[in-house]
Design brief:
Blueprint lengths: L7 E8 L3 H9 L1 H7 L6 E8 L6 E8 L5 E12 L3 E6 L4 E9 L2 E9 L6 H21 L4 E9 L3 H9 L1 H7 L8 E4 L6 E7 L5 E12 L3 E11 L2 E3 L3 H6 L1 E10 L2 E10 L1 H23 L2
Antiparallel strand pairs: 1-7, 2-3, 3-4, 4-5, 5-6, 6-7, 8-15, 9-10, 10-11, 11-12, 12-13, 12-14, 14-15
Length: about 290
């Protein structure tokens, strides 16, 4: 049987950002979840990235209406920080990405072998659209930071997952953020959930959020879309925009224990607050999980 020869296609863009920032946004799973889609009716609900030779990556790409989805995954063959990435997708196709600095700009070139199902032109348009989304995300992010926190808990992931999301125990460990902290809604994927507390005036405040992904005992992604101020839901304006972003929980079993990782978007204004408070909240959660 004759096998069609694969075609190598190249897409490119010029990003108004230094190469170290471009590299971070290209490789950090939280950022990947922001930009890795070819059209507005698709999104990436989960991303994993073991950025080293032989390391694996995975992005779960789904239609927002839930009608279809697939894993974009593979293995790294070359990784040179701020310069070059090469990987092989699980279907055997090769991809090469280069990062070329030019002052405060960075040229990103991505070359990939085409598959045989869709027209070459369609594939090129799709990959270029994703690359354009990446450029827009980097250039519009302002002072967005991705903060990372982690703690080892002497319990299996299923126990940590259950207790972290339990309605009553949630109030206990998140009291570090607000003494009256609680949530209303469901942790089911696609569900709306409100994270609430009471301010000094006695009014309800908090976040309007949706569950972007929930893989039982493994991964939870929360998308914050607005705020609650004086009891009202607000989705636009400076205050609301300052809080929008992703908050991800990853549960990894290591020698019978759980490495719980938290990765979240935060602007410069709240970076110090979260850096101080999240470690305290995780210590309290650890105590809850490990107590008899």
């Amino acid at each position: 049987m004759e096998t069609k020869e694969k075609t190598m296609i190249t897409v490119a863009t010029r990003v108004n950002a230094p190469v170290d920032k471009v590299w971070e946004y290209w490789t950090n799973p939280v950022h990947i979840m922001h930009w890795n889609n070819a059209s507005d009716d698709w999104h990436t609900t989960r991303a994993e990235n073991d950025l080293r030779f032989g390391g694996r990556f995975l992005s779960r790409m789904e239609a927002k209406d839930g009608s279809s989805g697939f894993n974009f995954s593979g293995v790294y063959r070359e990784v040179e920080k701020n310069k070059h990435i090469e990987y092989t997708m699980d279907d055997g196709r090769r991809v090469m990405v280069t990062f070329q600095p030019e002052g405060n700009y960075t040229h990103v070139r991505e070359s990939f072998e085409t598959e045989q199902t869709h027209p070459v032109e369609t594939q090129q348009e799709g990959w270029q659209s994703i690359l354009d989304n990446f450029k827009n995300h980097v250039e519009s992010s302002g002072t967005l930071n991705v903060l990372h926190f982690e703690i080892e808990i002497d319990c299996k992931p299923d126990d940590v997952y259950e207790k972290m999301l339990d309605e009553e125990l949630y109030k206990e460990w998140t009291a570090e953020f607000n003494a009256s902290s609680h949530y209303k809604g469901s942790w089911k994927k696609g569900s709306k959930i409100l994270f609430l507390g009471t301010n000094s005036e006695g009014s309800s405040e908090g976040m309007v959020s949706y569950i972007k992904e929930n893989v039982t005992n493994k991964f939870v992604s929360i998308e914050h879309r607005g705020i609650i101020k004086n009891g009202d839901e607000i989705s636009a304006g400076f205050d609301a925009d300052s809080w929008k972003g992703l908050e991800n929980y990853t549960f990894t079993e290591v020698d019978g224990k759980t490495l719980l990782s938290v990765d979240m978007d935060a602007n410069e204004e709240f970076k110090t607050y979260f850096s101080d408070t999240w470690p305290k909240a995780l210590k309290r959660l650890k105590s809850i999980c490990e107590r008899e």
